[in-house]
Amino acid sequence: MSPIMLRDLPLTDPGQPEFASASSFLRWLASKQWQTIVLGSIWGSLWLGALALMPGVIGRVIEAAKIGDQHTILISTAVIIALGIFQSIAGILRHRMAVTNWVVASSRIQQLITRKAVDLGGQLRRDIATGEVVAVASGDVEKIGWSLEVLGRLVGAIFAFLLVAVILLQASTLLGCIALIGIPLLGLVVGPLLRPLEKRESAQRKRLGRAAELATDTVAGLRVLRGIGGEDLFIERFQAASQEVRSAAVDVAKLRSLLEAMQVALPGLFVVTVVWVGAHLAQNGTITVGQLVAFYGYSAFLLMPLRIFMEAAEAGTKAYVSAGRVIRVLSLVRDDQSAPRDAHAPDVTMARLSDPISGLTIEPGILTAVVCAEQSTADEISLRLAGIDATGLDVLLGDIALGQIPRDELRDVILVQDKDPALLSGTLRQLLEVPGSGRITIAEAIEVASAEDVLDSLVDTSSGGGDPMDAMITERGRSLSGGQRQRLALARSLLADAPILVLDEPTSAVDAHTEARIAGNLVDFRAGMTTVVMTSSPLVLDRADIVVLVIDGKVAATGRHRELLHGNNDYRAVVTREEVTSS
Amino acid sequence: MMPPEDAVAASTLTGTALPIAQEATIRRYVRSLLKRHRRMFTAVVGFHSVASISGLVGPFVLGALVESLATGSVGMGIDMAAGIFVVALVIQTVFTRATRLRASILGEEVLADLREDFLKRAVSLPTGVVERAGTGDLVSRATVDIDKLNHAVRDAVPQITISLVTAMFVAVAMVVSAPILALTWLLAVPPILFSSRWYFRRAPQAYRAESATYAAVTSSVAETVDSGRTIELYQLEQTRIAETDRRIHRWVQWERYTLWLRCSWFPAIEAGYLLPLAGVLCFGGILVIHGTISLGELTTGLLLTQMLTEPVDEMLMWYDEIQVGQASLARLVGVQEVQDPETDSDLEPLDDRLVVDDVRFGYRAGKDVLHGIDLDVAPGERLALVGPSGAGKSTLGRLMAGIYAPRTGSIELGGAELARMPAENVRSQVALVNQEHHVFVGTMRDNMLLAKRDASDAEILSALDSVDASPWVETLPEALDTEVGSGGFSLSPGQSQQLALARLILANPHTLVLDEATSLLDPRAARHLERSLNAVLEGRTVIAIAHRLHTAYDADRIAVVEHGLISELGSHDELVAADGAYAALWRSWRDAD
């Protein structure tokens, strides 16, 4: 198996993760890219090893200068240059491996989360808050990547630390022991000092988050604010939050500056100790003056592995916590998975669709309008008819329960446009690219949905030389008005060309003129196919082949719009929106 | 290696609608910031100078020690040397603490100034500018740019300042102690200078593109999660997977490019550190043999050479953060450059009559949306604007609320031209509520108080009651103290619209423009709300842009807007009798009548 490099990304298959525990997930992740981790460790050791050898060479130059040995000076300079070039090359190669390890791990997890998210569909938002998943995708992924990035350096740091310790031990047992004890001791002293800092930092970040939220909130609602007033109130509020951030940050700085000062003092003391002991050894002739200078260099160099040890400890801890959050998302399973889906859908041109809970029956080949006294009922019924949630499994198509039909097959047959269909960001062309029969052109769908004027308004923002199809639709279609969004969503549903199409309030935000036109278009366009529209608009109801009234979640009446309007008081009340209490 | 694509295209995912400050403006702004905090800045530099000078004691002490050990002279006793070393270390520690603390306090003050200056200007932007620019650009300035400046001001600026001061002192020390050896430092200049120029010409854009393309990966995941239902219903699974993979590919291309940049740059920088070191060793060693300099001086020179590496490295590493910070600063300061329209605060309307006279208007030059609108709205009249989407109803509404000025023609309120009145004056007379239903972060009470700062709870509750909000307001966990908005108790779109309308009642202007202000409510609830609203608004002028015909039916007069013109105007009965487009629509709506 060849190592995974950056050019191989994205992975064709991100694999089947282990999610028994956070550490098993991290181990699985590392095992998937062990080659680059090993290479990174080798280059890391060579890189830091070369750096570790430099003080010794410098000491030899000092010694040679002292005794007037010009030859050794020239040779040693050449060795320094060689070591310098070698560490530079090894350093670059290590860096390449480190970045590769980071990026490969990050993109693998992003791919895993995406695949899990599409598998779970609407259920994911119910199980875990969107914000939490987003936090995993943006924060935790990076921390796990970081822990793999640091591995190569960690191995190199251990190697270099041991190398220097051996060199020192050979020269003087005392100095060697000072290094072997001193460096871990420094790590143990400085490490815990960082913990209270983290607490204060997270308190400060929280405040900063709050201030950022207020600023965002204020400018996001600026149109409202400018229209009605209250700017002063908001400025005062923001200033208060902003000053809180400042004082919290100063709190952090008090502690952090102390730590930074300690990071000068403690390693400084270590260096002074080495120099002091070394100078005595030099004085009594145990070591040379050149070695003294070298020892100064070694003690300064050892701070580098020390920093890497501390960074690795932090990265490891954070990655462990992050891995826990990642597996929480990755280990979710669909809750409508249980029943075996091994039946085939019956001929949909003949089969009627019936919902046992509401008693609703949809006849094939006609346009049925469903009027619900409560909007929430309409939303529930329409999602049930999709048969992909746990609640819709016992809806019958012909005599087959939807829960027995394989999901893909089911979705080829029934398309439900829910009340709040999301418009995914991208160009309009991408938005309208949905799996379908391919029988319907984009122009036709746009015309039926009366969305031509949306195209006109998109021309203004298009980057593709005025082609509205290349215009960018921002996330959730926020740049469009409610009516425009609904009509684009409708066009998309029509393009899918499903034999059974269920639309939940598809035109509630569309003006009456346009709604009347859409209703007429829809009847002609879907002629001969099964269409269900959840609506209470007379403009649509009047065009439906049959109208069903649902009250308290149950079917209460069925008939043509005009019949019901004259013959059914409840219906009349719901549809004409006259106040029921007055009658 | 070439960049994978145009860096600017990759990093500008949202367009810029507001100005970006010119360099001169930024410089002026930075100077004014420095002036505001001059004393603190001087203190930081002063304290750090003391810290760096004490840091220089080490090389000199070790040099002296080496000299005395090598020559066997009693120049400096070992314990004495260690003592001086420790004292210097203590001073360095104390002043490092002082420097870092002062630098942080200074940085935080500057950041607070920056974000507060920005927000103050943002909330006073002319309404037309806000409306046209949309809020996306402003939001990204308030979040992304402030965040980037946080990094720059908190880390990059102090690091670079401190490193610069350190490097200067090290250089001075070198020139003082071993001037001849200082010449070898010149060897570092060509590799560092040329490679860095090459690098920094490419790096900032590349890193911006890298982080923007990475953000695109994250937002693709976020959108996939958020739109899970739609993806499931429309069988978009494979499309979404492909989209995330495509974005990962795009991001990784930038990662590869920046990796290549670093891999090309680092060796040159390291050559820049290596050459002076080798130069000092070789040249200095020979000079010692020839007796030009002492062994102690060589040792000091050697250590100073190694000491210079760190500050230079820090400066190079933080330099691009400064560039990023500068770009963000330009965007934050940019809002200060928006010109306020010329207004006349003395302009006072004589009465509440709203007269629209031959108004033509378009968002883009040469493409009018309104083609000559005439309307005369009497005080207390209820006028409904109906018509197909895109006909210009909302645009007309915004003009009548004074948000835009007509291109030609005029809109006058009681004889005073709306467009020339300051926004603060206009809104006490005319208020607009549209489909945008922003609930501010804060309590329910906060959300109401912005319309009237001194409103009592009773007033607030009665305003909420008149928009039918009482039933759900009463069930809120902490009544008016309930936190709402992002992160708080979540209100439905319909409830948010009710909140917006209740605010309007509290603000109490004599003229209201309602642009589909109830469209997000359940149609039945909307009808009921409008009726209760009508009762409260009795006697006020209401211009309602309606997509539901019952709103039109309830109005005194109806204007049908088609293709930027008023095609029919009159009462419901008149229009039905006239048997035009409105009548046809009405019949299909309410054919039972």
Explain how this protein is built.
The complex is a heterodimer of chains A (583) and B (593). Chain A is α/β, with parallel strands linked by helices and 583 residues long. Chain A has 20 helices and twelve strands. Chain B folds into two domains: 319 residues, ABC transporter transmembrane region fold, CATH 1.20.1560; 236 residues, P-loop containing nucleotide triphosphate hydrolases (Rossmann fold). In chain B, helix 3 crosses helix 7. The mean pLDDT of chain B is 88. The chains are: A alpha/beta (583), B alpha/beta (593).
Q: Which residues of chain B form runs of ≥5 with pLDDT under 50?
A: none
Q: Based on the structure given, which CATH architecture of the largest domain in chain A is correct? A: Up-down Bundle
Form type of chain B: elongated
| Largest sheet data of chain B | 6 strands, mixed
What's the Cα radius of gyration of chain A?
Answer: 35 Å
Structural class of chain A: alpha/beta
**Fourth-level CATH superfamily of the largest domain in chain B:** ABC transporter type 1, transmembrane domain
